[in-house]
């Protein structure tokens, strides 16, 4: 093995790193991380030969009885079993009874192949993926207003040049530590940062202003900021006239968001609201960035919209070192939402219900457009629908990460047949009939699209362990047995993806593995091989029908579940620096788990005192859906009416509310009502 330049397996920053022959990871001077890595990236190589690695397919000793132990099986036997179950379900209940659930960690090639596998080999409408739980609200708002959903419409380095940055529900100090170099550089140069977060996170602690709203009230906050901007004459009237539509309705919708009313709704003092507007409107280039804290609500789409409206009204979008962006989360969270894993989508960010899109993609796939299924159901709706009988899960640990996880587990148990492909036996795999071992990042080729829309290359440094197949090989073999030949070679799949995406919104037609290598990644859209790619969007127009951004009036709605006497506090959930997502990977990394061995609920000392809770006690959190026991971490950095829990361990999602946003179908991960008590066993530890 020689040293291989590649990228981190985890988040959307996709830091450049080099895997040495000794299997050590060294940071690389790639444009996003410039030599930085976080603790997760540094330790990622530990998973390559981890003793927990899945190395053979597993099936149940008693077929059909998922309480019986697993036994090792051959691939041939396993494929036979899967195909038999798919055919049986589809014969009995129809095509859509078999489906798949994908992940934003999959390479573009795998995400594309999975979408095609379900539509063409299974001929089923049943597919969605974990990005529904991640990016869907901001994506929906961006699509309907800007005509395109590329998380950051500018390279990350532009953030260092903005004079003011408002971060709403984003904690990059923990979620993407190397990205802080751009915020730090800006600050050193006099830029002002405003963080909107119910907790004083590491990101908030370094900011000029910290606004600490009650979870679920960002829409009121953003409308309140726009109200002030309108009153104080900060609206860029020329920009609004020339480049947008819909502002009159937005203006009237903001009329009633008087600062004192917004203070009452959000808990953010009026003077801070005014100071925020002054900073965004008067200091030069300004950016508004949202992440999951603002978006993962049952009104998440309209909340993202409210921040976007503010950016448009101030004339920020498309101006140098200015604009609105959303910080994408998973390794390929961006590319994973472009090429057909989404229930309503075809490659190139095309819509499944658009006849021209169907005709184009069907011709690339060599099928009749009429054979393609229509749009399917969104993640939570598909997973909880009794019509789904056979499910293949790739790259997601929904038993831990989906909302109302007790119900999700019940539904997974009730399936006729569950197949899970993973590197390790996840909590979801533990519920499966069949577990398929798969290759991981350093063992296969592929492309990823990072948070900036930069398409990069993940290179194969070593072969998978003997007997382990890549997801592409697994899907190709399943397809073959269902009667269709598909390639399992990443390059061949990428060439097909280029053709399928050509002419679409997310156009990859001009991107090649060679160009990616030479150019430190290529930004989509990139329609031809001599096109330079598009690092910055919206300079002259928007890819909407009339070339203008379509602003939309939005009004505040309370979270689907509000605190009451029985459940008096708001629970919000999110991330810790040392763990990643459902934890199925990082909980197995020694140094990370030594640094943070268990879930800690963040509780304000006043709230703790009321319930006789001391720092380090075990506490029981209860919601209408379930209970979870976590260790208390007392901190005056959180609002006294709010509790924060990480979702990297089973527990938090037993509590969360699956109330879905009507537009994006995003669940309310960031606000539900809970009660808290000191857990009796807490005294012993
Ligand atoms: N260490 C680590 N890094 C990660 C990940 C990980 O699991 N671990 N996951 C990656 C992925 S997939 C994603 S999507 C990103 C997510 O990155 P972020 O969105 O930055 O992370 P979160 O912790 O989910 O939420 C951010 C903040 O929102 C705050 N918040 C909660 N409720 C509200 C609210 O109602 N309004 C506002 N304004 N803020 C609120 C929380 O207190 C939290 O500090 O991180 C990526 N990076
Ligand atoms: N309460 C609460 N819940 C949340 C969130 C929250 O903020 N609060 N955030 C939501 C968000 S933003 C997200 S993105 C989701 C993430 O939640 P999940 O979808 O569960 O994400 P991961 O834990 O990354 O799961 C990926 C799984 O795939 C495996 N894997 C990695 N690479 C591959 C591969 O190439 N192929 C295959 N087959 N498997 C692979 C990993 O081992 C892991 O088991 O959680 C959501 N859930
Ligand atoms: S910030 Fe994200 S991409 Fe970079 S090393 Fe950490 S987990 Fe990996
Ligand atoms: Mo995410």
UniProtKB/TrEMBL annotation:
CDD domains: MopB_CT_Fdh-Nap-like. Residues 1-50 form the 4Fe-4S Mo/W bis-MGD-type domain. SMART domains: Molybdop_Fe4S4. Keywords: 4Fe-4S, Iron, Iron-sulfur, Metal-binding. It comes from the Bacteria. Gene3D superfamilies: 2.40.40.20, 3.40.50.740, ADC-like domains (2.20.25.90), Dimethylsulfoxide Reductase, domain 2 (3.40.228.10). Pfam families: Molybdop_Fe4S4, Molybdopterin, Molydop_binding. The keyword Iron applies. This is Molybdopterin oxidoreductase family protein. The lineage of its organism: Bacteria, Bacillati, Actinomycetota, Actinomycetes, Micromonosporales.
